[in-house]
Every structure is written in structure tokens, then in C-alpha cells.
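EI: anyone free to look at a 261-residue chain?
SC: sure, send it
EI:
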Amino acid sequence: MSFSNENTAAHHLHTILRQVRDSGGNTYSAGWAHALAAEWSSPEFARRHTEVVTLLQLTLRHLNALPERSRLRSERYINDWWVAVMQPVANWSDTNRPSQSIISQEILDHLESTAELISGNLVGSDAAPRSGDLDEIANQCKEWVELLRSMSETEISGPVRDALISQIEHLIWLIDHVELFGGARVAGEASSVIGSLTQASATLTSVQPETASRWRAGVLALLAACVFFNQAAPIIQESIDTGTDVIKGISAVVDNARGNE
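SC: here you go
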């Protein structure tokens, strides 16, 4: 199965909808199962289709960042894209609704044009990352899972730890499926993970100095990896320097939680 190598959510939404339309399925459900490479009505299908809905959500969010004329032109087709993804009044198993009728070629073309506008205007941001190399983000995620699993409930609340692990493992899953859902989805989730880790740092209690050091270094390393992925340029040191104030703030919170001024 061939997917667009463009990194925007709109590009990958377009590619998935095109895969559904061109699948030759005699029902919407068959077309979606083909495009998502998951069995219809299975938990994995639900998980993957939910990500398609997120791609639509991101497309609309990124659309709002476009210049006004481009935004207004593209907004005319929002409902058409939403209907294609959700089909709120159709029976997905109706054999009188072949997958080819899920969306018209014209509406698909407008979606692809919007993707190109997003890519051109927002390149180098979460909306349109420049790079396709996710190895470093994946490595940082695995190290975070290892660190969190090593922390006791005297250092971090069990529910907070488990929620963080679940969120990071979902990011790893998105990286594993980047050809399907794209780099923008990964970049957006990675930013959310960084925010969650930063927020969670305020809840750390009786944390060991070695753990606190790994936490600070881990946030900075993940931040640097994300900046590198978005920009596709050798600016790791620059991103580290930029993130120093953030990390100092995190360090102060952690030290205060430990009772050290």
C-alpha cells in the first residue's frame, strides 16, 4: 500500500480517503478496512479510524493558520471532508454504497490543494515537519518508558506514571505507523507528551537526585529531538540552548518538591 511521503495531516487524510475510494470495496466498511489495513469492527480498526478523525481535526486546526484568502477558500469543503470520514447518515455495510462513492474526486482534489497550502505556509512546524527521521524521538520515548517504570510511588503518583506511560506508548505506536498517519500526527503528539512530562514534574515527591537528573535530561533530549525532526537541520545544540530556561524551570519545581532551595 502506497502512502504520501508528505508530512502534513491533510496529506495523509487525503491519501487514506483516496485509498478508501479506490479500494474497489462494495461497501464503505470494506473500503475503510482496506485503507486502514485492519479488520472491520475490530478494536484495531476503531483505534485506526479514531486517528483518521484526529487527522481531520488537525487539518482544520492547521487550516486556521493559513492566510485569510486561502483559509476561506478551503473552509468551503470542511463539511464534505467530515462527511467522508464520518458518514453520519449512511449504513457502512450497505452494498448499495460502494466505497467509490464515499467522496468525489473534486472534493479529494480540494483536500490535497489544502494540504499543499499547509505544507507551504507552515513548513518546519508541528503541522509540516521537514524530516522523516524519527529514530531519535523513538529512542527517547523508550528511555522515558524505562525511567517511568523504574520510579516508585514514593517518587511519582501511580496514576500519573501509568497515564504518562500510556501516552508515550501511543506516541511510539504512531511512530511505528508513520507511513499511515504521517509526521504531523507524530509531531503533535510528541509536543503533547513534552507538555505532560513538564506538568508531571510538579507532582514529583521524594524523588531521588539521580532520577531528577534523568528527568531533566530526558525532557531536554526529547525537546531537542522534536525540534530536529520539525526543522530537519543540525540544530540540536541550538535547541538545547533554547530549552535551557524551560529545563531550569523544571529543575526548580523538582528541587522544591524535594524540599531543596
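EI: Residues 123 and 129 are 6 Å apart (CA to CA).
SC: 👍
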